[in-house]
Amino acid sequence: MKWLVTFFETGVGKKLLMGFTGLFLILFLVVHLVGNLQLLKDDGGEAFNTYAHFMTTNPLIKVIAYGNYFFLLLHAFVGISLAIYNRKAKGKRNAVAFKNPRVTWASQNMALLGMLILAFLFMHMGDFWFKMKTGQLNVVDYGNGEVKDLFSAVSASFKELWIVIAYVIGQIVLAYHLWHGFQSAFQSLGVNHIKYTPFIKQFGKWYSILIPLGFAILPLYYYFFK
Amino acid sequence: MGLNLKLKVWRQKNNKDEGHFEDYQVKADEDMSFLEMLDVLNEELVHEKKEPVAFEHDCREGICGACSLVINGRPHGPNAATTTCQLHMRHFKDGQTIVIEPFRASTFPVIKDLVVDRSALDRIIQAGGFVSVNTGQAPDGNSIPIEKNRAEHSFESAACIGCGACVAACPNGSAALFTSAKIRHLGLLPQGKVEEGTRVANMVAQMNKEGFGMCSNIGACEAECPKEITLQNIAYMKRAYIKATFSGE
User: How far does B59 lie from chain A, in Å, by closest CA?
Assistant: First the structure.
């Protein structure tokens, strides 16, 4: 197994981990957004609460959720350790810093953006996930047994201005992270081809705008229109 | 005409020295190359009985990879696809201040002034950047059939002169572009394909051992490379290394 250890000691191995975990998290964001869009349904939270109940009780989803936590932590851990290693490898920098227009700002600040996302996640999960898991929520019944009323907690939070601002900022940070991260994940897996890469890059740009925008609309909608 | 230029040049006695910038005035001609402008400066310094500025150069025609320098923050200066020796003074304005620094990376320790030790790149080549079969005499042209596109791509990678501008441009100090260009150059050809697995394993291991940073797909290397080596090379290296690790014996 020494060969596998050697592999993950190299940049190729570490970035393969970053790429795979990153793509998993990218898929997770889609599923998470599709579910959350039920907040836009004007039914007093029935659809959202039923969905939240399903997501926290279905055994298959539970397994995927634990995988998700693990991949997220792995992504963060490897990413931060890479940033520290690379800073040391560069050593002293040039006095004149030139910014090449072909190089994106996001690509050079992925660790910073990532740590901000992590901070946002602590806030986000402390607010909803923690309440959902520790039973601080009321229960409601829509005719199929009791479910936790996460909807009331969410709609109450989204009435607080600072929370709404934090969510919007969190999504802007996420957009920048994805702007580099989406196409970079493919390069890390060795996928760079004249036929596919232009499409991947274009798709990645749309993805990195539309997904965070979709998330950001929810607190804004609740703050201004509910 | 001629240009009056203000230079801020990095001076450093040796690897132990802290180093500092020194200001110089130099009169240059538009037709001079950047290195010829430095030659003029050095002649003046020698005339004044001062220590000339140490910088590396050899072929002065853009193919040997000896010249380096970070000029106003850019490895090999402001022009795309140009080495320092092929950079001409007509691209600078009269009265302009030019800041000249060495290539920076922890793996490129400064030897003196603008000269850095790039032997880490040589050791990466020694680890596997060769074909170890006896090639005998020069074969007849086209005696080994190679597809046109393949030959072209291999040649693009072979254009790498090993100057280390990619390492200098990279905020991580990574040598992935250099190493991958050598791997792809040989790997695309039938003579080099045979040993690709061991080659990529050994060269990547050596790159790691030297302490080069890890590529995070920023693309500053590709943007500054005087030979326009692309990130496709790095993706090729990744595929070859992953294949060698998981399917090699």
Answer: 26
Considering only alpha carbons, which residue of chain A is nearest residue B214? A11
Domain boundaries, chain B: 3-112, 119-247
| Residue contact A6–B215, C-beta within 8 A | no
Tell me how far the alpha carbon of residue B119 is from its chain's centroid.
Answer: 12
d(CA A158, CA A150) in angstroms, rounded, equals: 12
What residues of A are in contact with residue B205 (Cβ under 8 Å)? Answer: 6, 10
Domains annotated on chain A, with CATH: 13-91+105-225 (1.20.1300.10)
A176 vs A212: CA distance, rounded Å: 10
Residue in A145, A166, A144, A161 with CA at minimum distance from that of residue A216: A166
Helices H / strands E in chain B, number of each: 9, 7
The parts of chain A modelled with pLDDT lower than 70 are: none
Architecture of the domain spanning B3-112: Roll (3.10)
Query: Is the Cβ pair B106, A91 closer than 8 Å?
Result: yes
pLDDT at site B144: 87
Taking any CB pair shorter than 8 Å as contact, residues of chain A touching chain B are: 3-4, 6-7, 9-16, 82, 85-86, 88-98, 100, 102-103, 107-108, 110, 180, 183-184, 187-192, 194
Q: Do A95 and B224 touch (CB under 8 A)?
A: no
> Are B214 and A190 an interchain contact pair (Cβ–Cβ within 8 Å)?
no
The tens digit of pLDDT for each residue in B139-163 reads: 888 888 999 999 999 999 999 999 9
Is the Cβ pair B73, A97 closer than 8 Å? Answer: yes
ipTM confidence score: 0.94
Q: Is B241 on the interface with A (CB under 8 A)?
A: yes
Question: Above 90 in pLDDT, residue B83?
Answer: yes
Answer yes or no: is pLDDT of B236 > 80.
yes
- Which one of A86, A93, A200 makes the best mutation probe of the B interface by having the most chain B beta carbons within 10 Å? A86
**Is CATH 1.10.1060.10 the right assignment for the domain spanning B119-247?**
yes
Question: What's the pLDDT score for residue B137?
Answer: 85
pLDDT score, position B124: 98
Contact B74, A98 (CB under 8 A): yes
Give the H or E element holding residue B110: strand B110-112
